[in-house]
Automatic annotation (TrEMBL):
InterPro entries: HTH-like_dom, Integrase_cat-core, RNaseH-like_sf, RNaseH_sf, Transpos_IS3, Transposase_IS3/IS150/IS904
Gene3D superfamilies reported in the protein's UniProt record: Ribonuclease H-like superfamily/Ribonuclease H
Family matches, as NCBIfam families: transpos_IS3 (NF033516)
GO molecular function: nucleic acid binding
Any single GO BP term: DNA integration
Domain Integrase catalytic: residue ranges: 90-175
Protein name, UniProt field: Integrase-like protein
């Protein structure tokens, strides 16, 4: 079969070029998600983030582009632990911060988060409450199990040591403190699940810990 030169040029030139441009654009989107996660997300979580924003790509394609771009997620030897799980029966609290992590004084805005630390003996779970203005940990608690008690204990420490008059407590939708009337000094605020860029202060706080405690894939 004889293929006209124009057709041959189109097949060998235009199509691969378009594919390369598409891969380049996808690589940039992958890198944005990867960087936003403090270089901790592997292919599955990167793909979940992209899918949520309407970007559809196969697992193999994303894995290849991440490998070609030198993007290697953080993992532990015995699997992955989810530290945020939304209560689907619970009405979400409003987002009073809207990613504007700015405070003019102490005890004006607190952010809360939880992470896990892999050790040879298993996991240690750490919950913290950070004061955005002072950038200090005002409450913390750790334990061997990821339980609501850790979040409550960290918050109780913050309330006991700081004794705020009125403070915004900003956390994820999985926090167990979202019970109306239970925490009088607090104005409860929540961000949506999955977005690592939503809780910027906590993300910067965890970064040195992740670097020192986690091993790269």
């Amino acid at each position: 079969m004889v293929i006209p030169m124009a057709r041959w040029t189109a097949l060998m030139g235009t199509t691969p070029c378009a594919r390369a441009l598409a891969n380049e654009a996808l690589s940039e989107q992958i890198r944005e998600v990867f960087v936003a996660s403090d270089a901790t997300y592997g292919m599955p979580r990167v793909r979940a983030e992209l899918t949520e924003t309407g970007v559809v790509a196969s697992r193999k394609r994303i894995a290849r582009l991440m490998r070609d771009g030198g993007m290697r997620g953080v993992s532990r030897r015995r699997g992955y632990v989810v530290t945020t799980e939304r209560n689907k029966r619970q009405r979400p609290a409003p987002d009073l911060v809207n990613r504007q992590f700015v405070a003019s004084d102490i005890n004006e805005l607190w952010v809360a988060d939880m992470t896990y630390i892999p050790t040879w003996a298993g996991f240690i779970y750490l919950a913290v409450v950070l004061d955005v203005y002072s950038r200090k940990v005002v409450g913390w608690a750790f334990g061997e199990h990821m339980m609501a008690d850790l979040v409550v204990a960290a918050l109780n420490m913050a309330l006991h040591t700081r004794k705020p008059g009125s403070v915004i407590h900003h956390s994820d939708q999985g926090s167990p403190i979202h019970q109306p009337g239970l925490w009088q000094p607090l104005r409860i605020s929540c961000f949506s699940l999955v977005r690592p860029s939503n809780n910027v202060p906590a993300r910067y706080f965890w970064q040195p810990l992740r670097i020192s405690c986690f091993s790269l894939e």
